[in-house]
Structure formats: structure tokens, C-alpha cells
Amino acid sequence: MHEISLVRTIFRTLDDNFSPEELERVVAIELKVGPLANVEPVLLQNAFDAVVREDEIRFREAVLRVNMVPILVQCPDCNQITEVHNYRFVCACGKPCGNVVQGNELLIERVEMRD
Fold this sequence. Notes:
Blueprint: H1 2-17, H2 20-23, E1 26-33, H3 41-54, E2 63-68, E3 72-74, E4 81-83, E5 100-102, E6 106-113
């Protein structure tokens, strides 16, 4: 399950960007995830819970929030941005479009800390 390695990477990223004192205050980690990132939110949550339970004492009080964003494409002909439904990459003008402008993200969007 690659979700476990993703969770460990998230924790390493937090380690690299926050002090140990700040990490002790983390109460929530919010991710921005697009469908093209090939991440299942339920599996990511299960992996988060497993890694925290086994390895990461400092994140025991933290919750993981996964914010899914839709796939958006921008048409090179009409410049419209259209939401993709059912993986049908077609602009609202009817032309096929593969210019993805949103939907492949896997980003730490926000880290919430207690005062």
C-alpha cells in the first residue's frame, strides 16, 4: 500500500518545515488531493492512523483531513476551464482537452496548531 509511504513523506515534510515544539502542537493536517493523484482517501486515512499508532507519538492528537478537488481542464482553443466528469476530458465547447489545470495534486494544504 503506497499510502503508508505517502503518510511517512508527509511527516518528513512537516519535520523539515517545523520545529519540534511546533510539531507537538499539531492538531490537524489538511491535504488537497485530486483524483489523478491515485490516492484513495479512505486508504490514506487508514495509513495515517496506522503510522501514528505505530511510529509517530507526536501526531497522536492530530487528525487528517483530505479535501478532494475535481479535475479541471483548460481548452487551448476557447480558453474555457471545464470540470471533468467520469474521466471524460472534453471541454464545454465539445473539443477533447488534455490540458489538466487541477486534479493531480497531493499537497499539504494547511497545518492547524493549538495555541
